[in-house]
Write a structure and sequence with these properties.
Blueprint lengths: L1 H7 L2 H14 L9 H4 L2 H8 L11 H13 L4 H17 L3 H17 L5 H17 L3 H15 L13 H11 L6 H24 L9 H15 L3 H4 L20 H15 L5 H14 L7 H13 L5 H14 L5 H19 L5 H22 L4 H20 L3 H14 L15 H19 L6 H4 L2 H11 L4 H15 L27 H21 L7 H17 L3 H19 L5 H21 L1 H17 L8 H12 L15 H5 L19
């Protein structure tokens, strides 16, 4: 016994013995002498706890503790350790009321004390938060989240090099997936998880030297947790949420639903991301959409990506498009429905980023879209689903058009040149002797539709700028393709690029009643006249060759008529009128020479008549002659003897002629009415215009 007392009473061991006794001594010590041995900070901490936990924190004693902490910042770490010790003890003893009081005290100390020693105190605080989150009681988890949320809004003076939030990210993410049986508790836990993740992101992003929250290991937990709370809600399924507007942050968070808080957190997360961190956000998002099969019914995917595009820093928005394009490349072997869903999302969000595209990125995106179109054509020929693949192709073309719509005009021209260079057959003239492979014809058709889509978004100012020599030459080669559909699309492209006064829709059908058209005729411009002198012959030569094809349909003839009319109305000069008159005479000779069948001859004659009427109004000296020739035509065809019958007959011919011409037949015995499918008691004749406009 003597040796034991001697050992304990040694100077170097005495303090330890006293400390153990004081700690082990109960709060209501019977001897009353133990409190004299306790450090002041412990006495102050003990005094904030009431005898009955329901009474709450003793405010007067809490003020003393805060005053002591602010005047003795070196004791903050000791205060934190002791509070942590009491909290662990109360948790083990199931004293939830004292646990809540400990957290209230911690919150007040964190808000009031901004000292250099706060880092040491924070470590104790985070340990206490972690201890509460590990509890199975929802009340303690919610209280821990509230404390951490307050802590996340504090900007520390000195950064922390060793602090880690791995456990908090994992725990808050798991709370976002809560499936508690009680609906109210489940909602509260999910809201707490979302707020906790928002606090982690906010805290770590402010501290550049702290843990990198943008690592893939963290983003793979945070992003899916937010998406899980957003998906399935009506605003995202029906697409009624206003993704372009930032949510009202001044609204009370307690009134918000989990999906609203998740959207706010996602917006904040994306807005803080820089160039190197965007990939770590978008990749988990794409994986989540894949795993949850959210591409086919893609309303949620569209809304989510719009939220990303409107929240991200503008200069980085093109990165999201590139990642989405790369994902489409990775899913090239998936079903057409999934690829169509991805392409549809792309078409919806790509216009948002188009304005930020500069230089090579424009061509890269267009090239990628064209490659997907080419792969789809090959897939259809290899036996994939035809109808689904066609929808996929149309979606890609629509995405290309939406992208081009938001580009400046000079980039639209570059885009059209690039697309045209990709069209097979544009580098050589189609001889028509050997048929092209089916894959090449389909690819021609789709790529030209893509070019037409881009052309509809372009506004022509000067023809010399729009029709560069290399562009025009390739386009004219395709205009004399042996395939009627290809020739028709080329004519539609010409309509889009030539028309500057929105006359195309008025010229879809040939007519002799010009007063009903309401055409807007442009003024002569020197630049246009110079362009015509340089390149007009190429345009007219292709029109002449177009009229000679035996597989021309009614749509082809109507397209040629619209092209001639647009040239007459847009480039008003004598040279244009003279050149077009020569072309009309050539077309008339073609119709009478027997190179085309009877139905095609009628169509060509009607087209010549319609264009000549317009020219006669622009050149008054021809008006009387054209009128006289038309009246002379009445005598040739008895069906044209009544007033206004010529216009009615012309309209009837164009509306009733078969879309494809039958095999060539002898001209003898062929009537205008029978060729047009119209029964008439008129006498038999070969053609309705046997000598029209021959001078």
């Amino acid at each position: 016994m003597t040796s034991f007392l001697g050992c304990c009473l040694k100077r170097d061991r005495l303090s330890e013995v006293v400390e153990v006794v004081v700690v082990k001594c109960p709060d209501s010590c019977c001897c009353g002498c133990c409190s004299a041995f306790r450090p002041r900070y412990k006495r102050l901490v003990d005094n904030i706890f009431p005898a009955n936990p329901e009474d709450g924190l003793v405010k007067s004693n809490m003020d003393k503790l805060m005053w002591y902490a602010m005047n003795s910042p070196g004791k903050l770490d000791h205060i934190g350790d002791y509070l942590a010790h009491r909290l662990y003890r109360d948790i083990n003893r199931k004293k939830t009321g004292y646990v809540i009081i400990s957290m209230d005290a911690l919150d007040q100390l964190l808000v009031s004390c901004h000292a250099n020693n706060l880092n040491l105190f924070v470590e104790s605080f985070l340990q206490m938060v972690q201890k509460l989150l590990e509890s199975t009681e929802p009340t303690l988890q919610l209280r821990a989240t509230q404390s951490f949320e307050k802590f996340a809004n504090i900007r520390e003076d000195t950064p922390s090099y060793h602090r880690r939030y791995d456990f908090l990210v994992s725990k808050f993410s798991s709370m976002c997936y809560s499936n508690d049986d009680d609906v109210i508790t489940r909602k509260q836990l999910r809201i707490a998880g979302i707020k906790g993740l928002q606090g982690v992101v906010r805290k770590t992003d402010w501290d550049n030297l702290g843990e990198n929250i943008w690592l893939p290991t963290h983003m793979e937990k945070i992003v899916p947790s937010l998406l899980y709370n957003m998906q399935g809600n009506e605003p995202y399924v029906k697409g009624t949420t206003e993704v372009g507007d930032a949510p009202d942050n001044h609204q009370n968070d307690g009134e918000k639903e989990p999906h609203e808080l998740a959207e706010m957190c996602l917006r904040e997360l994306v807005s803080r991301a820089t160039y190197g961190k965007i990939h770590n956000i978008v990749k988990p998002l794409l994986i989540h959409l894949d795993q949850q099969n959210l591409w086919v019914s893609n309303s949620f995917a569209v809304q989510t990506f719009k939220i990303l595009m409107f929240s991200i820093q503008a200069q980085y928005s093109i990165t999201v498009i590139e990642l989405l394009m790369a994902h489409l490349n990775e899913r090239s072997s998936e079903s057409p429905q999934i690829r169509t869903g991805i392409a549809d999302v792309l078409s919806k969000v790509i216009p948002i980023a188009a304005g930020e595209c500069i230089g090579p990125s424009v061509i890269e995106i267009i090239n990628s879209l064209l490659e997907h179109i080419r792969s789809s054509v090959v897939g259809v020929l290899n036996g994939k689903e035809g109808s689904a693949e066609k929808v996929y192709q149309e979606t890609l073309i629509h995405a290309l058009g939406e992208y081009a719509n938001h580009l400046p005009d000079y980039q639209k021209i570059d885009s059209m040149v690039f697309i045209l260079n990709k069209v097979p057959g544009s580098d050589r003239v189609d001889d028509g002797e050997s048929p092209r492979p089916e894959a090449e014809v389909k690819l021609q058709h789709l790529l030209l539709k893509s070019l037409l889509k881009v052309g509809t978004k372009y506004t022509t100012a000067q023809y010399s700028t729009t029709f560069a020599q290399s562009f025009l030459v390739r386009l004219m080669r395709l205009s004399v393709s042996s395939n009627a559909d290809v020739r028709l699309i080329v004519q539609q492209i010409l309509h889009t690029l030539i028309d500057r006064h929105q006359n195309t829709d008025k010229l879809m059908k040939p007519t002799l009643e010009l007063t009903r058209l309401g055409l807007t005729i442009g003024k002569p411009v020197r630049q246009d006249v110079n362009f015509w002198k340089k390149s007009g012959n190429e345009l007219l030569l292709s029109i002449q060759e177009n009229c000679e094809f035996a597989n021309n349909r009614l749509a082809n003839i109507e397209a040629i008529y619209a092209t001639l009319m647009l040239l007459v109305t847009e480039i008003r000069c004598d040279d244009v009128i003279v050149d077009i008159l020569r072309v009309l005479f050539y077309i008339q000779n073609t119709a009478q020479s027997g190179k085309v069948n009877a139905v095609a001859s009628i169509q060509l004659h009607a087209m010549v008549a319609a264009v000549m009427v317009v020219i006669s109004h622009m050149v008054p000296t021809l008006k009387d002659h054209v009128g006289a020739v038309i009246k002379k035509s009445y005598k040739v065809c008895h069906a044209f003897q009544q007033p206004d019958t010529l216009q009615n007959k012309l309209t009837e011919i164009f509306s009733r002629l078969p879309p494809t011409c039958p095999p060539a037949q002898p001209a003898a015995g062929m009537t205008c009415d029978s060729a047009a499918g119209i029964t008439s008691p008129s006498s038999i004749y070969q053609l309705p215009y046997p000598d029209i406009f021959i001078y």
